[in-house]
């Protein structure tokens, strides 16, 4: 008898011929996330992935916690396994399971649920459930009672490449396995919103690269480190990401010198979009992601969003567009990015924030202002991309 | 590229001989000083050697030296320990507005515990008013805690005068001195200054981090903070940090053997940098008292129209490491106690840079520093908020 985690995945099972690609991605991400915890055997098994610890002293709760942060997994059951597929094996595992369960309880209602992936097994599912129920009632006559409608415990038996018994299934992160739905580039700042936006798109199986603009000496090394830490938190759910760190000071200074101050932010954002999509293009990324939400700040009014969007050639996904701050904060707390996001390292950048930003910019007017940059901006963008540093997390 | 480290008031780089002494002690004298066998005695002897040295240095006796985890613990133990020990008869405790948080925040805590806390103001150079101090001390005053050298602007309080004044007004009032910034730089005699409690931290004078010292006058009772094995006369339970303590001793010995030349070196650094910056860079002025009378290793200069943290990072890009007198105004975690207390406000509060020196700093380093400052300031001032607008 060995301990085992049965990983259940949902949506991807219906994806037909590509199913094996999804499953392989999922197995790879599981292996990656569990690696720091010790040795595990991770295998595909007909609509499930089995995870067997190969070392003692592995805390199942930590494994469940890690697995529940992998996109594509809808549930994680923790139970026991025997290689042998027989009714004797079922009885033995179920008996041990009940013993452990009843150690701290006097009384329990239960029902048995059997899944027979191996259809060659001589007994039908209903038969296994009924006979196992009867056997357990005999073993614990005073402590057990069957209740098929509202049981305290559903004891699940799965008959496949081995015999599996468990009674608890923990909720997974849902979504689709990382890398099964193309690639997108996230504009990652140190704030609360952008990591959440990246997480939401990654949830749909999209592989993510991040772009961060840093402006030394106006933003510090600590601010960069904070962004890398945030990327690591999001990568827990995915399976790694690349952070492109773009030096942005010279461009900001050029805008500051040559353009009207109330338009600083909007022009800056348009150039950020331009740089992000060039980096995206050279990394097989098909779209951009931002953490924008309508009306949150001056640069995110409808007018500003329209003007910013105009600088994008590729689709820009804004999954938070209709969210209130409080809703975003809730997700940030759930995915554990909130505490990092609120660290106060990036505020020296406020020097480039105009006192009275334009909230209703018009595209023609912005484009006219940008003409002042025409002679230098292309060169500066190329230089910024050329000197971009890439960190893999 | 040479690193130019000018943040020695924050911490210093340990001396090679200290690193060696610490690792040798870890390797050889690994015993527990409380053990009855030979290994224990070997370790205990290391501590005794250190204790004899520090007692002699401070003009104290050996049973008045206690080891801690550093300045913060020494300050906490001295202040909370004495406040609690004498609270039945005396509830007033006095300190200044420019203390390090490991003193200031302790007073805030004790105020919440019902103590009568008096905070003395300072003038624009950072000195307390002795008359105000005298007036504040009453029959119920158990403790006066005053820092010797201020960590941000380097102002030196006249602790001998202060000690005499306290004892004249109320002989039972204890005098605690936070000497973390002054030790090895300004002479301290606990007898002369009538000091009852004195805090020291090793990493400010090329020693290891995580170790410090508290001098406690024999006659003073302290409520211990840590309870346990009863080490250090039950004043501070916990197995002694033998390698750290020995490393602190080696560091102090090194510095005191060369004290005159080291102090001359600090002064030369400070004068050079001060003179060049104030003469050659517009919109600069000194925070604190004139350079000749403030601490030799600390220089605090305000750069008008500059946000200190931005200047700090631009120096960092050139491998020059300094400290901003106070962090960004929008950084809610900042504590700008001293600068606000000497009357700076608004932009001035946010434009101070602290340079602090060590034995490693060379004249070429400071030359480079001035060159970089000149270059960066021209650049940064061009992009000042509220500057030009078209």
Task: Describe the overall structure.
Chain A: This is Probable tRNA sulfurtransferase. Chain A: Its EC number is 2.8.1.4. The complex is a heterodimer of chains A (393) and B (390). Chain A has 393 residues and is an alpha/beta fold. Helix content of chain A is 38%, strand content 22%. Chain A has an eight-stranded mixed β-sheet. A six-stranded mixed β-sheet of chain A has the order 13-12-9-10-11-14, sandwiched between helices. In chain A, helix 3 (87-102) crosses helix 4. The longest helix of chain A has 18 residues, at 221-238. Chain B is of the alpha/beta class. Chain B folds into two domains: 4-12 and 259-380, Aspartate Aminotransferase, domain 1 (Alpha-Beta Complex), CATH 3.90.1150; 16-257, Aspartate Aminotransferase, domain 2, CATH 3.40.640. In chain B, helix 6 links the parallel strand 5 and strand 6. Chain B is globular and about 65 Å long. Chain B starts with a strand and ends in an 8-residue tail after the last helix.
Unreliable segments of 5+ consecutive residues of chain B: 326-334, 386-390
Task: Give the termini distance of chain B in whole angstroms.
Answer: 40 Å
Sum up the overall morphology of chain B in one term: globular
The string of secondary-structure elements of chain A, in order, is EHEEHEHEHEEEEHEHEHHEHEHHHHE
Q: What low-confidence regions of chain A span 5 or more consecutive residues with pLDDT below 50?
A: none
Give average pLDDT of chain B, whole number.
93
Number of strands of chain B: 13
Determine the fraction of residues in helical runs of chain A and give it as a percent range. 25-40%
Number of helices of chain B: 11
If you compute it from the alpha carbons, what radius of gyration of chain B comes out, rounded to the nearest whole angstrom? 22 Å
Outline of chain A: elongated
Assembly status:
heterodimer
């Amino acid at each position: 008898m060995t301990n085992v985690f049965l990983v259940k995945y949902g949506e991807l099972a219906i994806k037909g011929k590509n199913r094996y690609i999804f499953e392989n991605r999922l197995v790879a991400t599981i292996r990656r996330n569990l690696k720091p915890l010790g040795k595990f055997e991770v295998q595909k098994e007909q609509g499930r992935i089995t995870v067997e610890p190969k070392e003692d002293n592995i805390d199942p709760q930590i494994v469940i916690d890690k697995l529940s942060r992998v996109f594509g997994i809808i549930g994680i059951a923790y139970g026991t396994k025997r290689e042998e597929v027989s009714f004797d094996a079922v009885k033995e595992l179920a008996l041990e399971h009940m013993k452990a369960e009843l150690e701290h309880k006097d009384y329990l209602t239960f029902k048995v649920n059997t899944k027979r992936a191996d259809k060659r097994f001589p007994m039908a599912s209903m038969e296994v459930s009924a006979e196992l129920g009867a056997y357990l009632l005999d073993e614990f006559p005073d402590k057990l009672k069957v209740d098929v409608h509202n049981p305290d415990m559903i004891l699940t038996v799965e008959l496949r490449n081995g015999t599996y018994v468990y009674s608890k299934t923990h909720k997974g992160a849902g979504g689709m396995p990382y890398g099964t739905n193309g690639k997108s580039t996230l504009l990652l700042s140190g704030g609360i919103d952008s990591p959440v936006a990246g997480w939401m798109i990654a949830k749909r199986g999209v592989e993510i690269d991040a772009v961060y603009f840093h402006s030394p000496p106006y933003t510090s090394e600590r601010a960069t480190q904070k962004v890398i830490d945030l990327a690591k938190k999001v990568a827990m759910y995915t399976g790694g990401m690349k952070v492109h760190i773009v030096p942005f000071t010279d461009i900001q200074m050029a805008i500051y010198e040559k353009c009207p101050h109330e338009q600083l932010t909007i022009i800056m954002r348009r150039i950020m979009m331009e740089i992000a999509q060039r980096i995206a293009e050279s990394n097989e990324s098909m779209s951009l992601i931002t953490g924008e939400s309508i009306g949150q700040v001056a640069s995110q009014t409808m007018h500003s969003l329209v003007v910013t969007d105009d600088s994008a050639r590729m689709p820009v996904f804004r999954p938070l567009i209709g969210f209130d701050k409080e809703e975003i904060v809730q997700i940030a707390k759930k995915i554990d990015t909130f505490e990092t996001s609120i660290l106060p390292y990036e505020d020296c950048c406020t020097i480039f924030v105009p006192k009275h930003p334009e909230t209703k910019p018009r595209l023609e007017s912005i484009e006219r202002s940008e003409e002042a940059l025409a002679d230098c901006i292309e060169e500066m963008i190329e230089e910024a991309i050329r000197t971009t540093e890439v960190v893999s997390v | 590229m040479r690193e130019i480290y000018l943040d020695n008031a924050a911490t210093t780089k340990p001396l090679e001989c200290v690193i060696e002494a610490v690792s040798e002690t870890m390797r050889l004298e690994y015993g527990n000083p409380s053990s009855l066998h030979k290994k224990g005695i070997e370790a205990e002897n290391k501590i005794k050697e250190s204790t004899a040295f520090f007692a002699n240095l401070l003009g104290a006796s050996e049973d008045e030296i206690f080891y801690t985890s550093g300045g913060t613990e020494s300050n906490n133990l001295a202040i909370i320990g004495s406040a609690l020990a004498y609270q039945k008869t005396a509830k007033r405790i006095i300190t200044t507005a420019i203390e390090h948080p490991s003193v200031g925040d302790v007073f805030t805590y004790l105020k919440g515990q019902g103590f009568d806390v008096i905070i003395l103001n300072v003038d624009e150079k950072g000195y307390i008013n002795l008359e105000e101090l005298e007036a504040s001390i009453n029959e119920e005053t158990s403790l006066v805690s005053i820092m010797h050298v201020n960590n941000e602007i380097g102002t030196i309080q006249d602790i001998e005068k202060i000690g005499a004044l306290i004892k004249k007004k109320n002989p039972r009032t204890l005098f605690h001195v936070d000497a973390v910034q002054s030790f090895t730089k300004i002479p301290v005699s606990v007898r002369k200054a009538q000091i009852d409690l004195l805090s020291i931290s090793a990493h400010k004078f090329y020693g290891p981090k995580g170790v410090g010292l508290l001098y406690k006058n024999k006659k003073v009772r302290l409520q211990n903070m840590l309870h346990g094995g009863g080490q250090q006369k039950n004043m501070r339970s916990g197995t002694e940090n033998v390698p750290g303590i020995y490393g602190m001793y080696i560091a102090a010995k090194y510095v005191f053997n060369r004290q005159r030349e080291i102090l001359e070196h600090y002064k030369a650094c400070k004068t050079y940098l001060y003179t060049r910056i104030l003469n050659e860079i517009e919109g600069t002025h000194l925070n604190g008292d004139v350079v000749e009378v403030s601490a030799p290793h600390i220089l605090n200069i305000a750069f008008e129209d500059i946000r200190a943290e931005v200047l700090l990072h631009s120096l960092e890009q050139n491998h020059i490491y300094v400290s901003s007198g106070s962090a960004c105004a929008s950084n809610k975690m900042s504590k700008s106690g001293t600068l606000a207390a000497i009357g700076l406000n608004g932009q001035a509060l946010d434009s101070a840079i602290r340079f602090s020196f060590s034995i490693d700093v060379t004249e070429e380093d400071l030359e480079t520093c001035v060159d970089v400052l000149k270059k960066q300031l021209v650049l940064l001032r061009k992009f000042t908020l509220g500057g030009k607008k078209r």
